[in-house]
Amino acid sequence: MERGGLGFAKFDVRSRKLIFANPRFCEMVGYSFDELSDGERLFADLTHPDDIERCITQLQRLLRGDIDSYTLEKRYIRKDSSVAPVCVTVAALQRDHDDSAVEIGVIGTPADPESTDRQSLPCSHGQSASFWCKDFGSDIAHCSDGLKILLGRDPNDAVPTFEDFVAQLHPEDRERVVEELRRVRNGMVYSSEHRIIRPDGEIRWVNQTVMPVFDETDDVAGLIGVCLDVTEAKRGPKSSSAHNTVTVVKRYVDLNWDRPLNIAALATAADVNIRTLFKHCKAAWGVTPNEYIKNVRLTHARAMLQMADKSTTVLGTALKCCFQNQGHFARDYRLAFGERPSETLERARQRRWR
């Protein structure tokens, strides 16, 4: 039986058929997987008549590409005709070349049966409830566009690998999160918060719940992860002064990352004193201005190594990114991305010249 309260299902939009459903989802709607996947029941057939119009409106927006995902409360009509109130998040797992969704994922949790607030909550970029799933048998992973956006990636990029995800974890959170994922593979469910570092150096707080999916022999066959960007909640009420400071700092660093930078110049550009500069940057990004500059430069260094030509060297890349000490550069690079810069360079060369 399913361990945990999340029901998950995956639908093919073109055929309107169910591709996958975990036991918890089947339990929610009261049908077996075989009954759900036989093509006789459309998604609308499981929805309470009073909720259909609202659900279809949001689904059409999702399918067109207007939104990446949405969350709402609705009611399922179970096989025994009973009503099951649920809160569902629906997201596009795969889109066609014209940005229309061809595969969607649905995550459901039981909702308060007394709730009368059944409004839709479309998720915008940076605030979406996003999710991913990994099937161990096929070694295939899927994720919503919202997850790529949360990680600071282009929605058209390939699905991030596990190594990509680990590389973007904040160094102080990486060991803990990896250990938590190992526990899920052993059949446990976990929910916790951690930080990720986007390619531009920005730090975001993520609340992630990961649960195992079990096969008919009760072995873990895959994982489902649900992520929510909670950065703004962590930061508390916005300060216009602080917002202006970090905006100026970000713009200044983006323009001058490959030149010598000093904190006094940043403070002058932001029109604040050094103490205020540190306070605002720490509150917004969770790091000092020096650490932010370093993260931006490391991201540029990684991009250079990934696009290496025959003349590219680790030392040359470090110097171009204003790292004067190659040993410190190698150490910081490994902490940020989980591998040595020489390993990134070697992999890029093998891919480019094979």
**What is the CATH fold-level name of the largest domain?**
Beta-Lactamase
Total number of helices: 14
Q: Major sheet: size, sense and barrel closure?
A: 6 strands, antiparallel
The CATH class assignment of the largest domain is Alpha Beta
Task: Describe the structure in your own words.
The relative contact order is 0.09. Helices cover 42% and strands 25% of the residues. The chain has two domains: 7-234, PAS domain (Beta-Lactamase, 2-Layer Sandwich); 237-353, Homeodomain-like (Arc Repressor Mutant, subunit A). A six-stranded antiparallel beta sheet has the order 2-1-5-4-3-6. Strands 8-7-11-10-9 form a five-stranded antiparallel beta sheet. It is built from 14 helices and eleven strands. Strand 9 and strand 10 form a beta hairpin. It is an alpha+beta fold.
Write the layout of secondary structure elements.
Blueprint: E1 7-12, E2 17-21, H1 23-29, H2 33-36, H3 49-64, E3 69-77, E4 83-95, E5 101-110, E6 120-123, E7 129-135, E8 140-143, H4 145-150, H5 162-168, H6 171-185, E9 190-197, E10 203-214, E11 220-229, H7 231-235, H8 240-256, H9 263-270, H10 274-285, H11 289-306, H12 314-320, H13 326-337, H14 341-353
Antiparallel strand pairs: 1-2, 1-5, 3-4, 3-6, 4-5, 7-8, 7-11, 9-10, 10-11
Helix pairs in contact: 8-9, 8-10
Task: Produce a short descriptive summary.
The chain is of the alpha+beta class.
Q: Which features does this protein show?
A:
phosphoprotein, DNA-binding transcription factor activity, five-stranded antiparallel sheet, 42% helix, 2 domains, alpha+beta, transcription regulation, kinase, histidine kinase, 354 residues, Beta-Lactamase
